[in-house]
From TrEMBL:
Its EC number is 2.1.1.181. InterPro entries: METTL16/RlmF, rRNA_lsu_MeTfrase_F, SAM-dependent_MTases_sf. The keyword ATP-binding does not apply. It is found in: Cytoplasm. Belongs to the methyltransferase superfamily. METTL16/RlmF family. It catalyses: adenosine(1618) in 23S rRNA + S-adenosyl-L-methionine = N(6)-methyladenosine(1618) in 23S rRNA + S-adenosyl-L-homocysteine + H(+). GO terms for molecular function: 23S rRNA (adenine(1618)-N(6))-methyltransferase activity. Specifically methylates the adenine in position 1618 of 23S rRNA. The keyword DNA-binding does not apply. The lineage of its organism: Bacteria, Pseudomonadati, Pseudomonadota, Betaproteobacteria, Nitrosomonadales. It holds the Pfam family Methyltransf_10. Keywords: Cytoplasm, Methyltransferase, rRNA processing, S-adenosyl-L-methionine, Transferase. This is Ribosomal RNA large subunit methyltransferase F. It is an enzyme of class 2 (transferase).
């Protein structure tokens, strides 16, 4: 098998900077072999429009690089790209290290999903203690199964958010302390907008769009009333109330056009320090914003 082209734009500690070595990955997860084919450049790859192929790739990556022997997600749940998720964790670790907060890190993952990818990466790469939060009971049952079958109960725990409109309220307990939060917010304002986004994604992959909402994501993973901007506004407003219980807050901002709103809201709640970390995964540009209320 011929390895895929490297992606040196990823974080220096990202284990996927040199592309996917499919020979190694197939050895780790033999079921992946059914989906590996040469692409138009002659490099081994998979059909990224095929949800089963993407799930098999993720399983192989998690098994080979993050010690996750057993992993699966229910049909139609979000199956995120591992390299991009790892980049967020690595750059977040840099922020913590730069401010002397790299030891005994306690992470709160907002919207952990059925896939549990952020805690799995953070627990393995940095030995962080992780708490994953979601509103979806089915997603949490699947995530709990991943935790238990991989013996990760001492590093990762889960909580269900009882109030779907809230972010931190109801899940950060009185007197509890976290080092940092992370989040990949839902970025569509409605199911119709999510459907349109899915169709653009399929067309970008050169495939005919399906009628289903999304080949990778439930409505609650993709949709929030008011879209990403409203979600970020709620998150920032609530973060002020928990500024003494969490050292750093962070969130991905999918749409760069939402950054002015984020900065305006952070100024309004009097965040003491704000930083934007730019990331690049191949052709994709992304970023996360991190802030604190502590000196």
């Amino acid at each position: 098998m011929k390895p895929a082209v490297s992606s040196s734009s990823l974080h220096p500690r990202n284990l996927h900077r040199n592309g996917y070595d499919f020979a190694v990955l197939v050895q780790a997860h033999p079921a992946l072999a059914d989906y590996v084919r040469p692409n138009t450049y002659g490099d081994d790859s998979i059909d990224f429009a095929n949800p089963q192929a993407v799930k098999a790739l993720n399983h192989a990556l998690l098994r080979q690089y993050y010690g996750v022997a057993v992993w699966d997600i229910p049909k139609h749940y979000l199956c995120p790209p591992i390299p991009g998720r790892a980049d967020y964790v690595h750059y977040l670790a840099d922020v913590l290290a730069a401010h002397g907060h790299a030891q005994q890190v306690r992470l709160l993952d907002i919207g952990t999903g059925a896939n549990l990818v952020y805690p799995l990466i953070a627990a393995h790469a940095y030995k962080w203690q992780c708490v994953g939060v979601d509103i979806d009971a089915k997603a949490l049952r699947n995530a709990q199964h991943i935790i238990e079958t991989n013996g990760l109960q001492q590093q990762i725990s889960l909580r269900q958010q009882p109030h779907p409109a809230s972010i931190f309220k109801g899940v950060i307990l009185p007197g509890e302390q976290f080092t940092v939060t992370l989040c990949n917010p839902p970025f569509h304002a409605s199911a119709a907008e999510a459907q349109a986004g899915t169709q653009r994604k399929w067309r970008g992959l050169g495939k005919r769009p399906p009628q289903a909402l999304n080949f990778g994501g439930q409505a609650n993973e993709l949709v929030y009333a008011g879209g990403e901007a409203a979600f970020l506004q709620t998150m920032i407003t609530e973060s002020r109330q928990f500024g003494k219980q969490c050292v750093w807050f962070s969130t991905l901002v999918s749409k760069a056009s939402n950054l002015p709103l984020v900065y305006r809201e952070l100024k309004k709640v009097q965040a003491l320090a704000v930083n934007t970390v730019e990331m690049e995964q191949g052709q994709k540009q992304s970023r996360f914003v991190v802030w604190t209320f502590q000196q």
